[in-house]
Amino acid sequence: MTAAHENIRSEILVAGAGATGLAAALAFARAGLKTTLAGRIPPPLPGRTVALFESSVRFLDALGALERVRARGCAVEAIHMIDDTDQFLPVPELNLRAREIGLPALGVNVSNDDLVAILLDLCRDRSEIAFVDADIADYEFNGDGAVAILADGRRLQADFIVAADGRNSRARAVAGIDVKEWTYPQIALTMMLRHEFPHENVSTEYHTRSGPFTLVPLPAREDAPNRSSLVWLMSVADARRRLAKPREELEYEIEDFAKSELGAMRIEGDIGQFRMGGMQVSKHAAGRLALVGETCHIFPPIGAQGLNLSLRDVADLEDCLASVDLKNPRELSRALARYDRHRRGDIGFRTHGVDLLNRSLIIPYLPVDLLRGASFIAMAALGPLRRAVIREGVLPHLVLPRLMRRPAHKPEVAGAPHGRAGLRS
Ligand SMILES: Cc1cc2nc3c(=O)[nH]c(=O)nc-3n(C[C@H](O)[C@H](O)[C@H](O)COP(=O)(O)OP(=O)(O)OC[C@H]3O[C@@H](n4cnc5c(N)ncnc54)[C@H](O)[C@@H]3O)c2cc1C
């Protein structure tokens, strides 16, 4: 990574240095494009982990990050889902196992801070990436390119802007892309836990009337052999009440929610709290700009879809732009229309799916309860349906970009070039 100079010029400028922006900078640099990454390094996120599924695991492998992510994370081999709503139908517990679809694991769970640190290190190692540790104040778009303007007046010129600057994206606003936003009456509390009994690399998701309570395996530490992260959705009033409790009482309540399956609980470090909301955009690209990550989709953390979807945005964009001359407006516009079409389907499907499941839990309504219960019963009973659901969650085949197609750790074809042209061969 080169140091920042005045008036940098690059082919791609990535705005935002969160996990999505860092992955985008690496993906375009790997494809041989001169890339600027602009944005401040995000502050630590207390208690936050991300479960990254097989498609993301393959992408991390392509970016050269997988070994380090695996070393800091924990494999998730199965998801155990329990309807804990006391609904009318007797709903069976559901086990979604990686080995049912021929994989050793569904994915890997890693702390958000570790993931960002690993990707940042990799960006620093790449000579194609110039890192500018500052927020972008404004943009100018024209027929030939774009300029990102920093608060101190420095101008970063690029053929194309990849906006990964999060939910309040300045790039999106300047490009005039409309957003639709909504809120849920919920907060997610996040924390890391030590517990008495082993998790056996299984994530357990209790579907309660306030939203999911999800335990995800974490790696052992020398002084703590059994650890998990928790994402717990609840009403704002319950979150206030729980945060005001003495730790010991909260730990006891968590053990109770988890039916003592993992035994006694101890909270490690700080507890995070995040208001739940949703967001969709009117389009995912315009002119010389494309949106990735939370600039173009937000939904509650149910089924661990958010960053997995963001990494698909990045891999898909890299795919769509692969053989495009960025200086040619017609070629670019065709590629962006394709990107918009792909993202509309993938993002729309996840956003509506998560919204439906969340609302079906928090709004008790018998017909909806029955439908949710019936889908559990069908999945528990029908192997092909269950396997299709597992595959769609971890390796969605209809929208799988090339960088996510090759299974991790399969050797590259001997002598295959690593440059931009080589990727497309
Ligand atoms: C409780 C919780 C649990 C979750 N669990 C999972 C999970 O298990 N699996 C999963 O896949 N997803 C999960 N997610 C979703 C996932 O964490 C997010 O989708 C992801 O972190 C978003 O990353 P991002 O880089 O797109 O956005 P951000 O992390 O918001 O990054 C945006 C970056 O842009 C920067 N920025 C802002 N303005 C500017 C500017 N003007 N100029 C330059 N830079 C700017 C910001 O400083 C920030 O660093 C979870 C989310 C929550 C809330």
From TrEMBL:
Instruction: Name the protein family.
Output: Belongs to the UbiH/COQ6 family.
The cofactor named in the record is:
FAD
Which GO terms of type biological process are on file?
A: ubiquinone biosynthetic process
The record's annotation in SUPFAM superfamilies points to: FAD/NAD(P)-binding domain
Instruction: Cite the annotated pathway.
Output: Cofactor biosynthesis; ubiquinone biosynthesis
Does this UniProt record's set of keywords contain Hydrolase?
no
Sequence intervals crossing the membrane: 12-33
Which taxonomic lineage does the organism of this UniProt entry have? Bacteria, Pseudomonadati, Pseudomonadota, Alphaproteobacteria, Hyphomicrobiales
Q: Which GO terms describe its molecular function?
A: FAD binding; monooxygenase activity; oxidoreductase activity, acting on paired donors, with incorporation or reduction of molecular oxygen
- Keyword set, alphabetical order: FAD, Flavoprotein, Membrane, Monooxygenase, Oxidoreductase, Transmembrane, Transmembrane helix, Ubiquinone
Q: Which InterPro entries match?
A: FAD-bd, FAD/NAD-bd_sf, UbiH/COQ6, UbiH/COQ6_monooxygenase
- Span of domain FAD-binding: 10-324
Name of the protein described by the UniProt record: Ubiquinone biosynthesis protein UbiH
